[in-house]
Amino acid sequence: xxxxxxxxxxxxxxxxxxxxxxxxxxxxxxxxxxxxxxxxxxxxxxxxxxxxxxxxxxxxxxxxxxxxxxxxxxxxxxxxxxxxxxxxxxxxxxxxxxxxxxxxxxxxxxxxxxxxxxxxxxxxxx
Length: 126
Hints:
It is a single chain. By secondary structure, the protein is mainly beta. It has strands spanning 4-7, 10-13, 18-24, 33-39, 46-51, 58-60, 68-73, 78-83, 92-99, 115-116, 120-125. The protein starts with a strand and ends with a strand.
């Protein structure tokens, strides 16, 4: 079973950095591609970044490309989202998700993901 818990959110100023973590308490973390999504008030949940099971592939939304970095440590059952040069429009609840797919896949479609964390709030002030 996959149980995801996010941490690392908070209130920062524009231009600051944050690193989100998502830990899986199960024993099958390396069997899943991992993704980060976010949802701002009144908006749909949107894709942010994804990393394949074997760490060979990462994919980013255009809005975060070059500012955010997704990575995973399979030995620690944890996926990270390093967020630099934060903007007020990055304000949202951030969710991690797990999807059991082929080792090289990094899905961007939220409907493909099977397991979700509870979310962590990121607020960027101007």
